[in-house]
Design brief:
The relative contact order is 0.09. The protein has a three-stranded parallel β-sheet with strand order 1-2-3, covered by helices on one side. A three-stranded antiparallel β-sheet has the order 4-5-8. The protein is mainly α and 432 residues long. The protein is elongated. Helix 7 (204-213) links the parallel strand 9 (193-197) and strand 10. The chain has helices at residues 14-30, 50-60, 75-87, 98-110, 126-130, 178-188, 204-213, 245-250, 255-264, 276-282, 297-310, 313-318, 325-334, 341-348, 359-373, 381-392, 397-408, 416-423, 427-431; strands spanning 2-4, 34-38, 67-70, 91-94, 137-140, 147-151, 155-159, 168-170, 193-197, 221-225, 228-229, 293-294. It folds into four domains: 2-65 and 228-299, HUPs (Rossmann fold, 3-Layer(aba) Sandwich), CATH 3.40.50; 72-225, Rossmann fold; 311-351; 359-431, Arc Repressor Mutant, subunit A, CATH 1.10.10. It contains 19 helices and twelve strands.
Amino acid sequence: MLRFAPSPTGDMHIGNLRVAIFNYIVSKQRNEELIVRIEDTDKERNIEGKDKEILDVLALFGIEYSQVLYQSENARFHTAMALQLIHNKKAFSCFCSSEWLDKKRNEAKEDKNPYRYDDACRNLPDELVIDNMNPFTIRIKKPDETIVIKDYIKGSVSFEPKDVDSFIIMRQDKTPTYNFACAVDDMLSDISLVIRGEDHMSNTPKQALIRNSLGYEKEIEYAHLPIILNDSGKKMSKRDDASSVKWLLEEGYLPDAIANYLILIGNKPPKEIFDIKEAIDWFDLEKISKSPARFDIDMLKHINREHLKNLDAKELSRYVGFADNEIGELARVYLEEAGTTKELRSKIEPIFADKIIPEEFSASAKIMIETIKSAPYFEEYNDFKNHIMKESGLKGKDFFKPLRFILTGAGNGPDVAEIYKYLKNYIGEIVK
């Protein structure tokens, strides 16, 4: 199987969504199941309802999975595996206090060395362990050999024994640490390939060590995706609005367009505009760039505009509050100057709202409104224009400027003749 393993600790980040999309595509290519594993063992950081939000986002993007698992439900397996490691002398009880460990960390920092646990408790005699009433953690014994990982993007990656210390697998409260729970759960679910962000690369040798120490012989493959950078060339964080999937959706970016863009960056697809289903035919993990991908909101807007253009008129109209082909075609006209559904609504809503006419055109506008109200229906714009011009006596700037404000609620925009084509059946409602 493959797995998407988010934590219910906040809004979904675009990096997490990208991981979910890639897992979905590869699961379809390999004809293997995709599971969603909610990693909820860190009770203090969990936010109620975030697990449902995650599943709602996956549904919105058409990401199918076979089942949802909660990591906390595997607690008995985490405990059993920890006991097995102690029984097999692959792990040990550590009685070092937090204060003592902090002291050691600070000393390493002052010496400008990376901190590594010094194995102070690794070889304690059994009688000292049994008789010790102090709180303790459980640590796995550090590796003796090089750990080699096969990565579809990074290639073969080696971790020397000095790079991995005897790290904690069970806390003092006997809850599993992230790496231990993750490694055990991947074994339980028979995971074949782990696709995740490269910020997890430091976790990979730890999880491999856990599996090796438990005698798990299956080799799990990896694909660590390069991070996504913001406009400043730094890793996108929660401070970047565009990092939040929720924010992008609220701004009016379509799920298909967001997915299109996240597959596109750091990749060389056969065409620029596509959906997830099409990507299944040509997507190749090994062709993902090793370099970080820069998030370009203008490029996303361009892709979003193209997806909006591809919608049929009635569906497009729904994004601006209608279910009408003509309003959909009108919205398509405005796509020349709008790239999101939010921007489109800001163009369409003023057409049907109370108009604010600049003072210099207010007198002309009053005359024109009365003239339009008493005018017959005209199929063609030129016939409508000529009739209103003749009946009102207005011309030039005193005619065209008020007409634009009355019909669109704006001083500038697309050609009025083009707009009239789709508004002619609404003229009475617009000028009422």
